[in-house]
Amino acid sequence: MKSLVKRSSAAALAGLLLCLAFVPAAHAVEILRWERLPLAVPLVVGQERVVFIERNVRIGVPPTVGEQLRVQSAGGAIYLRASAPIPPTRLQLQDVESGALILLDIAAEPAKAGQPALEPVRIVEGDVPATRYGEPAKPADDDAERTVPAAKRATPVAVVLTRYAAQNLYAPLRTVEPVPGLGRVNLRRGLELSTLLPTLPVRAQALAAWRLEDQWVTAVKLTNASGRWLDLDPRALQGDFLAATFQHPNLAPAGRAADTTVVYLVTRGHGLAESLLPKLSPIDATVNLPPAAAAGQAEGGARHEK
């Protein structure tokens, strides 16, 4: 009887070990913390590596490695596969909603004998200060949170918008600090801007616009159309603007490198199109009226006086 129990226990243990031998090992995931420093993601030629980022991003790939690197994105995951060795190269991941950038430094090397497959990578946000530029200022305690009806920002919205627009046009994209809630908006095609600076010989063209809360900022390119220097004064702008900032204080004569600049126009409640003054028609409609009506009188006014 005892021998039968021993044989049964041994058989059960052997079966358990056999089952454990066929249980696949769980894949480890390497955690990378994004703290505004480039993240190293090495690759092995011929092996696909997955990067989990849990957000919708655009992927910027240098053209020098476009043929050696296959990049696919789906459901918050990025799939990287190198078909040939790749020297150290930087990829840019840009959040579609906020515009935030994450930098990846990749390099692909041939597989070594006995080298295990690289584990997937998960990118998480690092520790950031409590209040960042453009974010709502946090109340000091719970009582303050209950008494304040709306969160106030540490920086005025107009300043945040103007700074963000200037960085997008004049600074490298990696230096643009993301602002929660700030997004790009579409511009009306063929927007007429002849009434913006009617006293100056400049050509104006709307470039881009962004919105945060109930305020818009529109970047407008100004080009000198004359042969003299022009001083730019915000008081010469015509329209309903909350704030206006010139990238440069003046314009060089036409044809020089400094004959172009940008003005950032901040509006509230609507975009730039609804903040411009109406354009006066160059055609005088009174030329088609009878002489008496053009003069502001009815046709029968003279006979009435008689």
UniProtKB/TrEMBL annotation:
InterPro entries: Integr_conj_element_PFL4704. Residues 1-28 form the signal peptide. The keyword Signal applies. Keywords: Signal. This is Integrating conjugative element protein.
